[in-house]
Design brief:
Elements: E1 16-20, E2 32-40, E3 46-54, E4 62-64, E5 70-73, H1 75-81, H2 85-91, H3 96-99
Antiparallel strand pairs: 1-2, 2-3, 4-5
């Protein structure tokens, strides 16, 4: 089942769609779509309406901050890397370049070599 407006541009649908990555109670990232719309009510007040829908496809996602430190991962990415839940919790805040130093050439740290 496809939701109305899913995959359409904001000009074709009545709302905007963004992909967001909230964290569930177990600490894993969930790939989610946020559907939202801005409108004026009868009192001429600006209001927002939003709806969230979990992405049905499993995605392997690792979220990094600007310093390439791991902020979170999807459960499927953790499973694919063969990490236990404890190991995953220990990787939060660690720099990805420690695990994959060959990636340095694709980062802003390359100029410091």
């Amino acid at each position: 089942m496809k939701w109305a407006g899913e995959g359409k541009s904001s000009k074709e649908s009545n709302y905007d769609v963004k992909k967001i990555f909230p964290i569930n109670k177990d600490g894993f990232i969930i790939c989610t779509f946020k559907f939202y719309k801005q409108f004026l009510n009868l009192n001429k007040d600006l209001q927002y309406v939003a709806m969230f829908k979990k992405n049905r496809e499993e995605e392997n996602v690792i979220i990094l901050n600007q310093n390439y430190e791991i902020e979170g991962m999807t459960k499927s990415a953790v499973d694919k890397l063969g990490l236990s839940h404890k190991d995953y919790q220990d990787t939060i805040g660690m720099n990805l370049l420690i695990f994959l130093p060959s990636l340095i050439e694709y980062t802003s740290f390359e100029e410091l070599r």
